[in-house]
């Protein structure tokens, strides 16, 4: 094997993020920001058409088609596999297919077993591995950081830049640690944890930082749980979220289609084992959380930082010292149609959405199915289950989870982003209220005038059964 | 990309903070495959309300948006920048921006300037009392000027140069093609490739 760039680094203690960063620097110094090499570039139909167009206009090619892969997800229908009713959605998907064909990029189209939400597909194929740089024109690319990679969302101009050069100029970020000590109590999930973190930091608290999540509670999370945590890093403004790889990570990657094999596997693991923050490495900032203090957490407002314990009540604007937070809260309560002081558990919902790149993986479906098994979705509630990928769907069917949901009266769909962003017909109608396992409760995110409460899969399932925000313990 | 050195124009005072990119342009407008023509999507939901700022006759000519903190957080959609530009905005001033939005704006010739809350408040008041008055955003001097008031702002040297020269990032990077090739020849053999594999 050729000597690798990371072997030549000095002995100064470094953070995990620094190590991965250093191993990808193509050019540094001078007035320009570091130029980083990109190991994996994921594409989808919404943020790529203008980038391909840019290449065409400049007469450029895709530099590394072997490090690029596309899937259809944001616009795809979930009620059938082949008819995209909306002509503009169809056009966008057709454009992606034509671009991939023209530029020689591998694509997983509707109907293909590897079609699905881009951040579910990467790990599923074994393309997401420790110590990589991963980008995608989608802010939840941070999901892939769960493997110990630097992964972040980019804009369409940057998509074009990566297609053309396989690199990206990036200003050096700062480094932060979120240390979660102790174990999560029974019934508290990765989603509850990250919603709590965001409620502490606010939506801008992580700005300019690559965050490393660590500590016992993080180590105890499954890979799916780690992905949920890293996924929502962007919701508190962080550039990326990372978790040091360990045995769980290797086990998850091993045997997948694109995982290294044989001697290459050994070489890879040897490198991956070096991917941890050195003793004595300094973070620019650290947040410490006691896992034992956590309980199921949900949002009440219109940004992911506006959250509260499920056992709590809707806050009043006066509860906030900061004048900006106060006005934002007042606006959020009005939009959400909520009265301060209402117990969260008394909030009735119309829709429950289980899915997205935050909580649409197999483990999430299992958790929800376990809660809902033998029970019924409450009268007047529409529960929609949208697996994160075609493969997750297939696996769920193999495990009989589809039956559990269907028997309970839920709507069992095909894979895609769906109601996470309401680009396809899966949308809330004005005034409708949803408990959603997705990541954004912005005004209108899930449909014009729709009201969103972000919740974990377990809370989503219990809410579907009772018709109001609830946890499995309430059943 | 258009060069940006200095711009003088009227202000639209948007008294809102945490304006995420879903508010700037809702997802339903993202389905186009072109890079222009997004002006109708800008703040689309708010614009349905006739009392909304941009529906007021006195702000029809505004070219500088002054808004509250955390502007452009959320989704990475570059369409948010295109929509602001297509609508006619040349610059946005806020105490703080979402990272991806900020990066996108500077790549598209839309100047985003960070000024402290107090300055933003003052600019809001001015624009509310005298909508016709103009302010200047000067990237060369790194200053915002309004009447007899001047605020300096910080701006990364490299980004400033790139913006003032109107330089295309890809061309800039390709000047270091040899370094990219050298890096590639040294990459670990086990790094994954997307080429189809036999399972
Ligand atoms: S599921 Fe939602 S957050 Fe994830 S990629 Fe799709 S739209 Fe983005």
Automatic annotation (TrEMBL), chain A:
Pathway: Amino-acid biosynthesis; L-leucine biosynthesis; L-leucine from 3-methyl-2-oxobutanoate: step 2/4. It catalyses: (2R,3S)-3-isopropylmalate = (2S)-2-isopropylmalate. Residues 429-441 have a biased composition (Polar residues). Its cofactor is [4Fe-4S] cluster. Residues 429-451 are annotated as: Disordered. Signal peptide: none annotated. The keyword Zinc does not apply. Its EC number is 4.2.1.33. [4Fe-4S] cluster binds at residues 357, 417, 420. Residues 18-467 form the Aconitase/3-isopropylmalate dehydratase large subunit alpha/beta/alpha domain. Pfam families: Aconitase. Binds 1 [4Fe-4S] cluster per subunit. GO terms for biological process: L-leucine biosynthetic process. CDD domains: IPMI. InterPro entries: 3-IsopropMal_deHydase_lsu (IPR004430), Acnase/IPM_dHydase_lsu_aba_1/3 (IPR015931), Acoase/IPM_deHydtase_lsu_aba (IPR001030), Aconitase_4Fe-4S_BS (IPR018136), Aconitase_4Fe-4S_dom (IPR036008), IPM_dehydratase_rel_enz (IPR050067), IPMI_cat (IPR033941). One of its GO terms (molecular function) is metal ion binding. Keywords: 4Fe-4S, Amino-acid biosynthesis, Branched-chain amino acid biosynthesis, Iron, Iron-sulfur, Leucine biosynthesis, Lyase, Metal-binding. The keyword DNA-binding does not apply. Heterodimer of LeuC and LeuD. Belongs to the aconitase/IPM isomerase family. LeuC type 1 subfamily. Catalyzes the isomerization between 2-isopropylmalate and 3-isopropylmalate, via the formation of 2-isopropylmaleate. NCBIfam families: leuC, PRK05478.1, PRK12466.1. This is 3-isopropylmalate dehydratase large subunit. It comes from Glycomyces luteolus.
From TrEMBL, chain B:
It comes from the Bacteria. GO terms for molecular function: 3-isopropylmalate dehydratase activity. One of its GO terms (cellular component) is 3-isopropylmalate dehydratase complex. Keywords: Amino-acid biosynthesis, Branched-chain amino acid biosynthesis, Leucine biosynthesis, Lyase. Residues 1-117 form the Aconitase A/isopropylmalate dehydratase small subunit swivel domain. The keyword Heme does not apply. One of its GO terms (biological process) is L-leucine biosynthetic process. It catalyses: (2R,3S)-3-isopropylmalate = (2S)-2-isopropylmalate. Pfam families: Aconitase_C. Pathway: Amino-acid biosynthesis; L-leucine biosynthesis; L-leucine from 3-methyl-2-oxobutanoate: step 2/4. Its EC number is 4.2.1.33. Catalyzes the isomerization between 2-isopropylmalate and 3-isopropylmalate, via the formation of 2-isopropylmaleate. Belongs to the LeuD family. LeuD type 1 subfamily. Heterodimer of LeuC and LeuD. This is 3-isopropylmalate dehydratase small subunit. It comes from Glycomyces luteolus. The gene is leuD.
């Amino acid at each position: 094997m050729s000597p690798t760039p990371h072997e030549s680094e000095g002995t100064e203690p470094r953070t995990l993020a620094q190590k991965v960063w250093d191993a990808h620097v193509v050019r540094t110094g001078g007035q320009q920001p570091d130029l980083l090499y990109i190991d994996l570039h994921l594409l989808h139909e919404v943020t790529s058409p203008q980038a391909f167009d840019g290449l065409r206009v400049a007469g450029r090619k895709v530099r590394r088609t072997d490090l690029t892969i596309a899937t259809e997800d944001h616009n795809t229908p979930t009620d059938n596999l082949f008819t995209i009713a909306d002509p503009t959605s169809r056009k966008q998907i057709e454009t992606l297919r034509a671009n991939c064909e023209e530029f020689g990029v591998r694509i997983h189209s509707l109907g293909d077993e590897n079609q699905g939400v881009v951040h579910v597909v990467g790990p599923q194929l074994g393309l997401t591995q420790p110590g990589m740089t991963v980008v995608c024109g989608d802010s939840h690319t941070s999901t892939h950081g769960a493997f110990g990679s630097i992964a972040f969302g980019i804009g369409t101009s940057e998509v074009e830049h990566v297609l053309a050069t396989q690199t990206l100029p990036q200003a050096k970020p700062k480094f932060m640690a979120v240390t979660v000590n102790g174990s999560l109590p029974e019934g508290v999930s990765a989603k509850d944890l990250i919603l709590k973190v965001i409620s502490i930091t606010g939506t801008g608290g992580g700005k300019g930082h690559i965050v490393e999540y660590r500590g016992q509670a993080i180590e105890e999370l499954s890979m799916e749980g780690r992905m949920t945590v890293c996924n929502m890093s962007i919701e508190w403004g962080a550039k990326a979220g990372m978790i040091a790889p360990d045995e769980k990570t290797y086990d998850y990657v091993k045997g997948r289609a694109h995982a290294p094999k044989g001697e290459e596997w050994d070489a890879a693991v040897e490198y991956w084992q070096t991917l941890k923050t050195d003793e004595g490495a300094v973070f620019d900032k650290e947040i410490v959380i006691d896992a034992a203090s956590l309980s199921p957490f949900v949002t009440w407002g219109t940004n992911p930082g506006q959250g509260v314990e499920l056992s709590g009540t809707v806050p009043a604007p006066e509860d906030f010292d900061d004048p900006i937070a106060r006005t934002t809260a007042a606006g959020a309560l009005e939009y959400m149609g909520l009265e301060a002081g209402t117990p969260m558990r008394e909030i009735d919902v119309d829709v429950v959405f289980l899915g997205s790149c935050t909580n649409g993986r197999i483990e999430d479906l299992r958790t929800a199915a376990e809660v809902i098994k033998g029970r019924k979705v409450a009268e007047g509630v529409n529960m929609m289950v949208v697996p994160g990928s075609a493969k997750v769907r297939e696996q769920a069917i193999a495990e009989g989870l589809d039956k559990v949901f269907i028997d309970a009266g839920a709507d069992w769909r095909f894979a895609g982003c769906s109601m996470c962003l309401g680009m396809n017909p899966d949308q809330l109608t004005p005034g409708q209220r949803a408990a959603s396992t997705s990541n954004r409760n912005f005004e209108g995110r899930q449909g014009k005038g729709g009201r969103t409460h972000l919740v974990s899969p377990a809370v989503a399932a219990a809410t579907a059964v009772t018709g109001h925000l609830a946890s499995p313990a309430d059943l | 990309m258009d060069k940006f050195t200095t711009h003088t124009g009227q202000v639209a005072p948007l008294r809102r903070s945490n304006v995420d990119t879903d508010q700037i342009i809702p997802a339903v407008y993202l389905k186009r495959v072109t890079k222009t023509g997004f002006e109708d999507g800008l703040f689309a939901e708010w614009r349905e309300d006739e009392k909304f700022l941009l529906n007021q006759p006195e702000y029809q000519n505004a070219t500088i948006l002054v808004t509250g903190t955390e502007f452009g957080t959320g989704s990475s959609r570059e369409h948010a920048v295109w929509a602001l530009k297509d609508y006619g905005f040349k610059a946005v001033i806020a105490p703080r921006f979402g990272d991806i939005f900020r990066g996108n704006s500077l790549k598209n010739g839309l100047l985003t300037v960070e000024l402290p809350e107090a300055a933003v408040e003052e600019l809001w008041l001015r624009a509310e009392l005298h909508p016709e008055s103009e302010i200047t955003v000067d990237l060369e001097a790194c200053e915002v000027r309004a009447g007899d008031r001047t605020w300096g702002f910080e701006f990364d040297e490299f980004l400033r140069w790139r913006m003032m020269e109107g330089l295309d990032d890809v061309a800039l990077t390709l000047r270091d093609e040899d370094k990219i090739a050298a890096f590639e020849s040294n990459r670990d053999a086990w790094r994954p490739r997307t080429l189809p594999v036999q399972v």
